[in-house]
């Protein structure tokens, strides 16, 4: 089940708010300009579905999001235990680095992932699952964690063709807040 914990920067381990209902989560995130929707993923897509088939199966949703938000690039993000540990560790470290950049969306088609969004003195920790769509506006500070034993397949849509590594803030708040494996 998707859930949202809201933390104040003065207490990074105890949330001030915990939401479990999709409508409540969407309303809370909309207040900071973030869209959160429940989408019906293509039934043929699993964590093992080849990347090209994931894109083909989700082409309708990708087209809708491109038209609605102006995204120019769509790719498949996958982390699972079939990847060598060294690769998973490097990916995780890169994604835990706080960044800001162009508008982007993540549509989870298999598995789960934890997104942290930092706005002023608040951090929003959003556990997403299959069928969740998270659309981030340009400029929002965020980081991502799928845990030490990840199992996630998601479609990433971006408004900029540049590498997502651009926009690192240089801050390291990820170690101060609960990680994926803490939930």
UniProtKB/TrEMBL annotation:
<feature type="compositionally biased region" description="Basic and acidic residues">
    <location>
        <begin position="162"/>
        <end position="171"/>
    </location>
</feature>
<feature type="region of interest" description="Disordered">
    <location>
        <begin position="162"/>
        <end position="183"/>
    </location>
</feature>
<keyword id="KW-0560">Oxidoreductase</keyword>
<dbReference type="InterPro" id="IPR011051">
    <property type="entry name" value="RmlC_Cupin_sf"/>
</dbReference>
<keyword id="KW-0223">Dioxygenase</keyword>
<dbReference type="InterPro" id="IPR014710">
    <property type="entry name" value="RmlC-like_jellyroll"/>
</dbReference>
<dbReference type="Pfam" id="PF03079">
    <property type="entry name" value="ARD"/>
</dbReference>
<dbReference type="InterPro" id="IPR004313">
    <property type="entry name" value="ARD"/>
</dbReference>
<dbReference type="GO" id="GO:0010309">
    <property type="term" value="F:acireductone dioxygenase [iron(II)-requiring] activity"/>
</dbReference>
<protein>
    <submittedName>
        <fullName>Acireductone dioxygenase apoprotein</fullName>
    </submittedName>
</protein>
